[in-house]
Automatic annotation (TrEMBL):
Record bears the keyword NAD: no
Family the entry assigns: Belongs to the tyrosinase family.
Keyword Oxidoreductase: yes
Keywords carried by this UniProt record: Copper, Melanin biosynthesis, Metal-binding, Monooxygenase, Oxidoreductase
Enzyme Commission number, as recorded: 1.14.18.1
PANTHER family: SHKT DOMAIN-CONTAINING PROTEIN, TYROSINASE FAMILY MEMBER
Taxonomic placement: Eukaryota, Fungi, Dikarya, Ascomycota, Pezizomycotina
InterPro entries assigned to the protein according to its UniProt record, in alphabetical order: Di-copper_centre_dom_sf (IPR008922), Tyrosinase/Hemocyanin (IPR050316), Tyrosinase_C (IPR041640), Tyrosinase_Cu-bd (IPR002227)
Entry's Gene Ontology BP terms: melanin biosynthetic process
All residue ranges annotated as the Tyrosinase copper-binding domain in the record: 282-293
UniProt protein name: tyrosinase
Cofactor dependence: Cu(2+)
Organism: Choiromyces venosus 120613-1
């Protein structure tokens, strides 16, 4: 078997844009390593196809024999809707990273001449780059690294001399090489699409521009949600999109819910990223999940005492779940194993600095903090979170005591993702919804949404939650944030619709849907080493109770807050 150990040495995973601009030799070796991995025979278990296939389809064992008592062939190995979502993807990324790095190192060894050492050093620094889709600099734009069809690389020629060549960009798409595998293991339209695609047209050509338009149009709520993640005091609520029972409105968001939404925007109708079964074949998956992992490490730094608690178990290919089964910190993260054959568990990665045991870190988790008190890292990372994601505080008021405060508004969304067949999204608008479904995602008054990330052939039934921050849109619309003005405005203007592919689904068809609105006064300290303080949270049932799918006065059991 292949032990998951990470790449040798200790190097930071950096932003893809930063790698391209400021570490071009490392970027070159990363691209060459990925090209080599994608070129491996699809039936080899180290190939891009087989490793990507661990996540969902082909629903077959990876480096083990099929065991009918433990293996569920209706799904892949990945964990979703459960706190293990956060930890399962960590060894998964490591497996890809060590494979790409291994190829990069082999290729670098073939260079000859005065620059040979430069490429060897660059190969040692290769790590999966991340795509920060909440960055205030790039504002959810897709990196050019994933949208250009060709890329210029320097590779060794037959004699080892560096040679500049334009090649097909391995981050643009993965081309399936074995038609028989697709016919055997994929379903429906995916049996015929020869390469991964994003927001495809009728001929399955990618339309990255549509994905980018949807992403940039929802940037502001994404940034706000990302910032708010770090104030959630419970790891399980931070990590997983699933949720039931009374939860404070500010904790309805999760890193998984933000992540689901991005899958839906990138894939669109019939794009691989929209479906659990196919998402990991699209190379953007690795940049996306690298950023999810980065946010998890930052959360672990800010909340070092918080980690996985026991929760209802999630079924995966590697585990048949029976009623009453639980997942906890010792649940095996299959199919990943250590060199001694022991299975990976979440306990292996239970702190921010634990990632350094596996060869990587992030700019926000500097290596020198490995030996310093945990509180020092907490303070440092909190400062980074504020630098990166804190809002500019329009509509707020200052005070003499060193903080700014404003009332902030969020829409809360709860739905059963198994109630409607296939992937779907709930979209929120302020004002009239455009008549054409095709105009919904990019309409100026579309303020965010909540997407499911299911598979295309079966119903994964569980309740998911998400939230859409409304404050910046209200400020932009010049609405006073005081409830006296906001409540009547939202009662009149808050609208929601359900989109599946390129068609709409009547809201009445989603019986499990609950959309509510909560607000609270939030105080922002002047000191960037502190997170904001949220005062009493209130839920405004009077905004939504008359609408189909709206939160009703008798739904108070869902929301841990006061009734406004």
């Amino acid at each position: 078997f292949t032990p998951v150990i990470g790449a040798p040495g200790l190097q930071p995973r950096i932003a893809i844009e930063d790698m391209q601009a400021n570490a071009p030799d490392v970027y070159n070796m990363f691209i060459l390593g990925l090209v080599a991995m994608q070129a491996e025979d699809e039936n080899r278990d180290q190939s891009y196809y087989q490793i990507s296939g661990i996540h969902g389809r082909p629903h077959i064992p990876w480096q083990s024999q099929f065991d009918p008592n433990n293996n569920d062939p209706s799904r892949g190995y990945c964990t979703h809707g459960n706190p293990l979502f956060a930890t399962w993807h960590r060894p998964y990324l490591l497996l890809v990273e060590q494979t790409i790095c291994g190829h990069a190192t082999s290729i670098a060894a073939r260079f000859t001449g005065p620059d040979a050492q430069k490429y060897r050093d660059a190969a040692d620094r290769v790590r999966i780059p991340y795509w920060d889709w909440s960055s205030q600099v790039t504002r959810s734009r897709l990196p050019s690294a994933v949208t250009s069809q060709g890329v210029t690389v320097i590779q060794p020629d037959a004699s080892g001399a560096p040679q500049s060549t334009v090649i097909a960009n391995p981050l643009y798409s993965y081309k399936f090489s074995n038609d028989q595998n697709r016919q055997t293991y994929f379903a429906g339209v995916f049996q015929t699409i020869p390469q991964t695609c994003r927001q495809p047209d009728g001929s399955f050509n990618s339309r990255n521009n549509l994905a980018e338009d949807e992403m940039t149009n929802t940037y502001e709520p994404r940034r706000a949600n990302t910032y708010n993640l770090f104030s959630i005091p419970n790891f399980g609520e931070f990590a997983a999109a699933s949720g039931t029972g009374a939860t404070a409105p500010s904790n309805w968001i999760s890193v998984e819910s933000i992540h689901n939404d991005i899958h839906a925007h990138i894939g669109g109708a019939n794009g691989h990223m929209s479906y659990v079964d196919y998402a990991a074949f699209d190379p953007i998956f690795w940049l996306h999940h690298c950023n999810v992992d980065r946010l998890i490490a930052m959360y672990q730094a800010i909340w070092p005492s918080q980690f996985i608690q026991s929760s209802p178990a999630a079924a995966t290919f590697g585990r048949i779940v029976h009623p009453g089964d639980r997942d906890d910190v010792n649940t095996p993260l299959r199919p990943f194993r250590h060199p001694d054959g022991h299975e990976w568990t979440s306990a292996d990665i239970n702190s921010a600095t634990s990632i350094m045991n596996y060869g990587y870190t992030y700019p926000e988790i500097p290596a020198e903090y490995r030996t310093r008190p945990a509180q020092d890292l907490t303070t440092f990372v909190t400062g980074k979170v504020n630098d990166l994601y804190r809002p500019s505080l329009g509509g707020g008021s200052g005070s003499g005591s060193g903080y700014k405060s404003r009332r902030e508004w969020i829409a809360l969304i709860q739905m059963d993702q198994g109630e409607i067949y296939g992937q779907f999204s709930l979209l929120i608008f302020l004002g009239n919804v455009p008549t054409s479904v095709g105009a919904w995602q990019t309409a100026p008054n579309h303020v965010g949404g909540c997407a499911t990330f299911g598979d295309d052939t079966s119903r994964n039934e569980y309740i998911i939650r998400g939230s859409v921050p409304l404050t910046e849109a209200l400020v932009e619309n010049k609405v006073d944030l005081d409830p006296a003005y906001c409540v009547p405005y939202l009662r009149k203007n808050l609208k929601w619709v359900i989109k599946q592919g390129d068609r709409s689904i009547p809201v009445k068809d989603l019986k499990s849907l609950k959309v509510g609105v909560s607000s609270s006064v939030v105080e922002y300290p002047k000191d960037y080493h502190q997170l904001p303080r949220r005062k009493k949270e209130e839920t405004h049932y009077d905004i939504t109770y008359k609408q189909e799918g709206g939160l009703q006065y008798n739904d108070t059991y869902l929301v841990k807050s006061e009734q406004a």
